[in-house]
Amino acid sequence: MAEGEAPQIPGGGAGLFVRNATGLVRSAGMFDTIFFNWIAAGGIGLALVYNVYWALNAFPGVNLVAASLAVVPLAICAVLVFSLLAASIPRSGGDYVFVSRIVNPVWGFIESFTGFISVILYSGWVAWFTAVAFVPAALGVLAESFHSSGLASAATWSSGKTGSIVVAGVVLLLGVLIMLWGFRPTLRAITLMAVFGLVGLLIAVVVLAVHSHSDFISRFNKYGASQSVKNAYGTILSGGTKAGVAVRSGSAAFSRSAFPAMVISFYALGYSVWSIYFAGEMKQGRSRSRELSVMMVPMVLNVIVYVVAFILLFKTVGYPFVSSASYLYNYAPASYPLAVPPFLPLFASVLSGSTFLNVVISLSWIMWPVAMVFLTIVQFSRMIFAWSFDGVIGEWMSKVSDRSHQPTRAIVIPAVMAFICAVLIVEVGSLLTIIAYTVLLALIFWGSMAVAGIVMPYRRRQLYLSSSARWEIGKVPVITIAGTVLLAWVLVEFYLVFKYSGLGISNVGEAVGIVLGVMAVGALIFLAFYVRKRRQGYDAMLVYKEIPPE
User: Three-state secondary structure along 343-359?
Assistant: First the structure.
């Protein structure tokens, strides 16, 4: 590992690992890592589509501001657990490294494998969603701005079966190519997309802020008339009223709306911790303050942006209208009268009156999901690398390019799997169910990391005492306190996901069967590794007594 740091963490026993050094390079700076984690927490534009509309449709009348603010303490606990674990064991591989070394090797692989399947599925879904939601929304706005039938046709093609597969494949291919180029270029690309996305989002927010609700109704109806739709605002609102979703924010009881919607809010605000997957490649990774900063800053930024965006969106566009448009577009498309999806770019472009601003808003809109796909490729490549480096799967998966210092095979093969998932999504559909399963599988990972945080000061006492994770309130470790709160929340999430069908699980038995099936596959893979090592005359568990080398 380049740029050696002191003190060294004991570990890396000779002969236990594939080799005595990972071959990865410590090239991730603080600035790029902050933006990486910012995208990891939903990527503002991405979350403003599926998280917001998911909540509005699942729980009509939900107060999204309240649901978002309620998860902030939980997101802070997540940041504390993940940042302190990363500071104590700064190695690439994420939860697999932490849980296998702190909790149990077998469980460490099984929970990591469930997380891997969740990420592969999510990566394919985001690539597909880019094609069917973001590209059509952007091209639709551009088509209207430039009066281009060609752009309108391209928008329609992208959302179709062939177009969505092609666009999803292109997005994944771009992610693979830049990862093969190098890790630093990948992080920089994610940062640039995040910055461009933020510029477009800020323009959209300002446009909403300087216009009134009556301005929006007038201009939206004018836009609708250009699409041969009379009283477009009233038509959409009427459809939502008939469906029972055109209600006021906060009209539903907190316990039956905002409380279960906290699962969705946490999905957007609690995930600013994904740099754990390249903790071994982050500069000054053993610094507690640095690990805390790269996770806490994007989390706080997300909270501010979400709350402001919610307030302005509902003030100017109207909560009942947003809820109605979302419902019709997703669940009753024959009743949605417009060609352009009812997302923020459409609302802002209707109000801006500027072709230039509309171009910036539209193009920046596409950056969010593309950056997220790049991020997922980073994540699953490091998971596979860590498994291979410990010898659980083929050693050839952890081979690192001498030129780019990247695990080529660990990048390409999972990306192909993600593309297959995207194709299956096109064929099968069931958008909400797919997202729900990614959340459910991810909860295994979240619970395992919480447990690792709780027990780390006791099961790895010397490691805790010698690392910057040593931080106590009285005599109780902060990581234990935060881990306990996080574990309690994960258990509540399990309850809510199974209780409320609006969160996507309509068949509990099927959902449990899928989760147990994925875990069983992970257990079989680990069993094969154990048997193979035994036949070779090695104790497979010895590798887990050591911290991987740098």
Answer: CHHHHHHHHHCCHHHHH
For residue 282 the two structure tokens come to 């982050």
Residue 531: strand, helix, or coil: helix
The pTM score is: 0.91
The pLDDT score that the predictor gives to residue 543 is: 84
Q: Strands 476-477 and 472-473: what pairing?
A: antiparallel
Rounded Cα gap, residues 139 and 115, in angstroms? 34
Determine contact, residues 157/163, Cβ cutoff 8 Å: yes
pLDDT, one tens digit per residue, over 448-475 is: 999 999 999 999 999 999 988 899 999 8
147: nearest Cα among 222, 227, 215: 227
Q: Side-chain half-sphere of 309: how many Cα atoms within 13 Å?
A: 26
Tens digit of each residue's pLDDT (9 = 90 or more) over 140-160: 889 988 989 999 999 999 989
* 8 Å CB contact between 81 and 370: no
SS3 per residue for 182-207? CHHHHHHHHHHHHHHHHHHHHHHHHH
Q: Which fold has domain 30-545?
A: Amino acid/polyamine transporter I (1.20.1740)
Q: Which of 220, 197, 425 lies closest to 340 in space, CA to CA?
A: 220
- Parts of the chain with a pLDDT under 70: 1-21, 42-43, 429-433
- Phi, psi (rounded to 5 degrees) for 476: -100, 125
- Ordered by start, the domain boundaries in the chain are 30-545
**pLDDT (tens digit, 9 = 90+) per residue, 419-453?**
999 998 887 766 666 777 888 888 999 999 999 99
CB 243 within 8 A of CB 332: yes
Residue type, 273: V
The answer to whether 80 touches 479, Cβ cutoff 8 Å, is yes
Residue at 314: amino acid letter = F
**C-alpha distances in angstroms, 413 versus 244, 439, 472?**
45, 23, 43
